[in-house]
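Researcher: Structure prediction, please.
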Amino acid sequence: MSAPLRATVVGAGAWGTALAKVLCDVGHEVRIWSYEPEVAQSINERSTNPYLKGITLPAGLRADADLGRAVGGAELVVSVSPSQVVRNVMSEAAPHLRADATIVSASKGVELGTLLRMDEVLATVLSPSVMERFSVLSGPSFAHEVAAGAPTAVVVASREQAVAESVQAAFQTRVFRVYTNLDVIGVELGGALKNVIALAAGMTAGLGFAHNTTAALITRGLAEITRLGVALGARQATFYGLAGMGDLVLTCTGSASRNRTVGFRLGQGETLDAILGDMTAVAEGVKTASAVHELARRHGVEMPIAEQVYAIVEKGRSPLEALQALMERDPKPEEWS
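Model: Predicted structure follows.
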C-alpha cells in the first residue's frame, strides 16, 4: 500500500463511489465530485449514495458539487464520468489540476464522432506533463460488489511501469487486488468493447436461450474484440486477461450488468427508447455499438456480432432476426489471428 494521498474521484455514480470507498479503505484523504448537488449532500450528510443503495460510505469521504474545488490540490485524480461526457468534464477540471497529479481513467467507452479512446480524449484536454502520469483501470468489477468488499481483481495499465506500480499501490487492499500492464490500448478497448457483446448476451437470454448460446457469444465475441484491438495497436494477450476475458464474462453473465439488462429487455420485445427512458445509470454499450461499427469498417475488421448489435440499436432490427443471421453465416474455420 502507498503512503496516504490526497485523492479525488471525478464522478459520483456507482462505480466512482465504489472506487472512492476503496481509496478511503487504503487510508487516503478522498473527495468525490458529483454533478448532482443532492448526491453530494447525501454523501456528506448521510454517508449514502442513491446510486449505490445499501452501502454505508466512510465518514471521511467528502463530496463536492464544485469541480474545481474538488480536484484542486489532489495528487491522484480518478476520472469516472460516463465516456461521452469525459471530454467536457475533464476540460473543466484541467485548469485546477496539480502539474504533478497522477490521472487514472476508469470510464469504459469510445467517444462518438471522434472514435477516440478515453486516454486519447484526455490527451487532448490535459497537459502533456499530466499525461506522463496517466493510467487506466479496468477489469471485472461490479460497483456494488466492490463497495461491499467482495474479493475483486482488476488491472491498471500505463505506458510507464513506475506509474502503473504507483497506482497499483494506491488502490491495493486485502480484497481489491490490482495487477499492472503496459498495454493502455488493449486495456482501454477491452473495457469498452465488451459492453457491445454484453448487449447481445442479454438479448439471447431475453429470447429464452440459455448457457450454450451465451458461451458461444462470449467466445466468438472475444475473437471479435481481439481482432479489432490488435488492428488498433493492442497486444493480443491483453484480451485473455482481466480487462478482456475477465470483464467480458462478468458483463455477459452477471445480473447486475446494465448492458446485459438492456439487451435482455430488448430480447423480451421492449423498445430501446422505453428501456433507456427509465434507467438512471448509463449502459455504455448502446453508444459504443455505433463507434465499434465505424472502427471495424475503417480498419476492415470482421465483427459479425457487433454488426448485428449495431443493426438492432441503430436500425431497429429484431434480436431474433439478428441471431438467425449470425447462425446462418457461411461455415468457417475457428480463427483467432
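Model: Strands lie at 6-10, 29-33, 62-64, 76-79, 102-105, 134-138, 152-157, 176-181.
Researcher: Thanks, that helps.
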